[in-house]
TrEMBL record:
Any Pfam family: SQHop_cyclase_N
Stretches assigned to the Squalene cyclase N-terminal domain: 28-123
Annotated protein name in UniProt: Squalene cyclase N-terminal domain-containing protein
Entry keywords, A to Z: Isomerase, Membrane, Transmembrane, Transmembrane helix
Keyword Heme: no
GO BP terms: triterpenoid biosynthetic process
Gene Ontology MF: a single term: intramolecular transferase activity
Residue spans crossing the bilayer: 52-72
Database matches in PANTHER family: LANOSTEROL SYNTHASE, TERPENE CYCLASE/MUTASE FAMILY MEMBER
Cellular component GO terms, alphabetical: lipid droplet
SUPFAM superfamilies: Family 10 polysaccharide lyase
Length: 134
């Protein structure tokens, strides 16, 4: 089996009797592979090519139902803010998908979700978004 352009992943042929040693060896290889793919801050990065309005809609929905802080702990909320700021365009807006142009819909719900997650009106989000009105 070839993963990531190298041949470091070994897949054993079907084994009749699965022993502790085989399971242990397999788990060690799996952990080694996952640890090489894991980023320094602990997650496994990937490219999400879908619409960028789904996460803000989730945040808004959780807030409206009163479950925001129950479902998303402070670390989750920080990572969501990081994700949203990472996908904010230089001019302050957000787009429908990674390669698209800014849309008012995505800009509005992303801004609202950041505010619901505790970003202050004078934070970096507002400063960039204000440029859109100018």
């Amino acid at each position: 089996m070839k993963v990531g352009g190298n041949n470091n992943v070994k897949v054993e042929k079907e084994i009749e009797d699965i022993s502790k040693e085989v399971v242990g060896r397999t788990l060690k290889r799996a952990l080694r592979l996952l640890s090489t793919l894991q980023s320094k801050d602990g997650f496994w990065p990937s490219d999400y090519g879908g619409p960028l309005f789904l996460l803000p809609a989730l945040v808004i929905g959780l807030y409206v139902t009163g479950a925001l802080n129950t479902i998303l702990n402070i670390d989750h909320q920080r990572e969501i803010k990081y994700y949203l700021f990472t996908h904010q365009n230089i001019d302050g807006g957000w787009r429908l998908h990674i390669e698209g142009c800014n849309t008012m819909f995505c800009t509005a719900i992303s801004y609202v979700s950041l505010r619901l997650l505790g970003e202050d009106i004078y934070d970096r989000c507002h400063a960039k978004c204000k440029k859109i009105d100018s």
